[in-house]
Design a protein that fits this description.
By secondary structure, this protein is of the alpha/beta class. It has 13 helices and nine strands. It has two domains: about 210 residues, Rossmann fold (3-Layer(aba) Sandwich), CATH 3.40.50; about 80 residues, rRNA adenine dimethylase, C-terminal domain (Helicase, Ruva Protein, domain 3). The protein is elongated and about 70 Å long.
Length: about 325
């Protein structure tokens, strides 16, 4: 028996019998909206498994769920009895089902807050000012925003702001299977990319399990991976997030070419070859490696020497090799 189940039994409280998520979707005539990348997960065994992947949820913890929809994962979270549950849902059509869950959970004395807002603009510090509670971020993310949201949260993590004012805030999130594999891909791996490096600079991501596409309504064209992302107690760099992101983005802009090609686009054309060669030597990185072969440490060494170069040449920070003044006339 889990600790959460034991607490429910000891207190004599449990969620009352309720219609299934499938029944609620039918009752309220809820249909997934393609423009919002919505896919409903109806199987409670799978929603329980997602929440279990988040690890221990204590009675003093806070859980923020992104995009609860009709409330499938929400039910599984309530069974773990956190002290507070915050739902952030962009689509107000789910108001009645979520309000029903809130009312049914009232005997459990869980603080239950529902915000109809875009998670990309949601102000964590305004709605969660107290940092005494450990935060779990859980969600079946819309595919259309999943990568952008993750990068935003990495930037918050690097700055110790938002949901990451504490170092123990963990994320348990769903992604398209290919994206989930990219987040966790090691150096040299087939799926290694910019997202892999950015994920592994500040966190330790783990692909927990895969959910077949047929488990969702409507069925997506791909399977779905559940990833737990745990912040590192000691990040691998103290460099500014946006500098690291810029360097890694340029490196991977030419993924199948030598890594010096993409890295070189950080610098003006007139002295690009000379500067690129010098910085690779200073970073002690082989410039004929492909970007996907680079380790996190090698990428960070390249970011470090780029940062040092900017001290002597601050104008380079604004250089855009794709800008109109830099277009070569053939």
């Amino acid at each position: 028996m889990t600790q959460a189940s034991a607490r429910v039994l000891q207190s004599g409280m449990r969620l009352p019998p309720m219609p299934t998520i499938r029944e609620l979707v039918k009752l309220y005539r809820l249909q997934a909206r393609k423009q919002l990348s919505q896919n409903f997960l109806m199987d409670e065994r799978l929603t329980d498994k997602i929440v279990k992947s988040a690890g221990r949820i204590d009675s003093k913890d806070l859980v923020l769920e992104v995009g609860p929809g009709p409330g499938g994962i929400t039910r599984s979270i309530l069974r773990r009895q956190p002290q507070r549950l915050v739902l952030v849902e962009k689509d107000p059509r789910f108001g009645e089902t979520l309000q029903l869950l809130k009312e049914c959970a009232s005997p459990l004395n869980i603080q239950f807050d529902i915000h109809y807002d875009d998670i990309l603009r949601f102000n964590m510090e305004q709605h969660i000012p107290d940092t005494s509670q450990r935060i779990h971020l859980i969600g079946n993310l819309p595919f259309a925003i999943s990568t952008r949201l993750l990068i935003n949260w990495y930037e918050d993590l690097a700055a110790r702001r938002g949901a990451f004012r504490r170092i123990d805030t963990c994320m348990t999130l769903t992604f398209q299977q290919e994206v989930a594999e990219r987040i966790c891909a090691p150096a040299g791996g087939e799926q290694r990319c910019r997202l892999s490096v950015m994920s592994q600079v500040w966190t330790e991501p783990v692909l927990k399990f895969t959910i077949p596409g047929k488990a969702f309504v409507p069925k997506p064209q791909v399977d779905v991976g559940v990833v737990k992302v745990m912040p590192l107690k000691r990040p691998k760099t103290q460099l500014p997030f946006r500098l690291v992101e810029r360097v890694v983005r340029h490196i991977f802009s030419m993924r199948q070419k030598y890594c010096r090609r993409g890295y070189g686009t950080l610098f003006p054309l007139e002295d690009r070859e000379e500067v690129t060669e010098k910085l690779f030597q200073r970073a002690e990185v082989q410039d004929t490696l492909r970007p996907f072969e680079l380790t996190v440490d090698q990428c960070l060494r390249l970011a470090e020497v780029y940062s040092e170069h900017l001290v002597a040449h601050p104008e380079v920070a604004a250089y855009d090799y794709r800008g109109p003044k830099n277009v070569e006339v053939l």
